[in-house]
Amino acid sequence: MGTFDSKQGFLCDMDGVIYHGNQLLDGAAAFVRWLNETGKRFLFLTNSSERAPRELQQKLERLGLDVGEEHFYTSALATADFLKSQSPGATAYVVGEPGLMNALYEAGITMNDVNPDYVVIGETRNYNYENIRRSIKFVLAGAKLIGTNPDITGPGENNTTLPACRALVSPIALSTGVTPYFLGKPNPLMMRTGIRLLGVDPADAAIVGDRMDTDIIAGIETGADTILVLSGVTTREMLPTFPYQPRYILNGIGDIVTV
What we know:
- The protein is an alpha/beta fold and about 260 residues long.
- The chain is built from ten helices and 15 strands.
- α4 runs parallel beside α5 (about 100-105) and α6 (about 130-140) packs across α7 (about 165-175).
């Protein structure tokens, strides 16, 4: 506990760490209460691009957690920040949910289904042959291909597995021969932004996540301490297959409070 208590800031994943679908995971409420009571700086850093921070705040509220909207940073926001910095006022053909659309609009990126500068793919339940066809057409015409995050799968309710962004981008990348650029963890741009928003040095921060290939590698490459929780995608049996390891392995997020 002394090690965790000494950390000034926490970057925390959501799916598989705080909740599964609409089910709050054991220990999540105690962890958030501990963050607030000890005055820790914290940010929920999620690769999900579907929801805006306000929607995520409301979701946690429905699950019984009181967390301010300022404590969320999503891959949709990371994508919007990147496009704004690279090409202010650019246009995009977007396959995604309102959280992604709104982030792009607020960054000055407008929608274009004729000759866009970018094709941006995020998680969505409205994925179909027509938007794949259009995406391929625009990329072949010169639009740059962007994915909000590199996750292949994500956790659903009742231990189900859902296709995530990289899986949705793959048909377009394979059909065009174009390599997409992914924002979201473990992209250093997103991690550096998260650390900056926390206002702490990387050595004084810890990242908590359930995925070795995004959360843990992101923490290692950023210089933050890494805490793997086994409540999501990664199992203990999978750990030997990775060439890098987390500093701490916990059964769930609540163990941070009790260890």
